Amino acid sequence: MTGGAGFARQGSDSFKQNRALRNKRKRMSDSPYIKVRGVKGKRNADFDFKAIQKFREDRRRKSRIITIIISITFILLAIVLLMIA
């Protein structure tokens, strides 16, 4: 049978963990385990924003088409069920 001591220990461990979460996290460049030269915590990659925008537009267009097809299918199904009933 578990006594109150087990629950008290869980509570104190939870309190310690929550208190530890309040500390600020270190940056990647300050990590003692990762020794990478030139890591300053900033992105240096060049992005092709036009390609990203085109990809997003294509994805939205496909999702709109799929939504329209699904809604038309449900409407036709509802009409058929109402005609049968």
What is this structure's SSE topology?
Layout: H1 4-21, H2 49-84
Report on this model:
The protein is mostly helical and 85 residues long. The protein has one domain (4-84). 64% of the residues lie in helices and 0% in strands. The chain contains two helices and no strands. It has helices at residues 4-21, 49-84. The mean pLDDT is 77.
Mean pLDDT: 77
Terminal Cα span: 60 Å
| Main beta-sheet annotation | none
State the total count of DSSP E strands: 0
Element pattern in H and E: HH
Percentage of residues in helical conformation = 55-70%
Total domain count: 1
The general outline is flat
State the low-pLDDT regions, or none. Answer: none
What share of the residues does DSSP label as strand, in percent?
Answer: under 5%
Question: What class, by secondary structure content?
Answer: mainly alpha
The number of helices is 2
Radius of gyration of CA atoms, rounded to a whole number: 28 Å
Descriptive keywords:
85 residues, mainly alpha, 64% helix, flat
Summarize the structure.
With 85 residues, the chain is mostly helical. The chain is built from two helices and no strands.
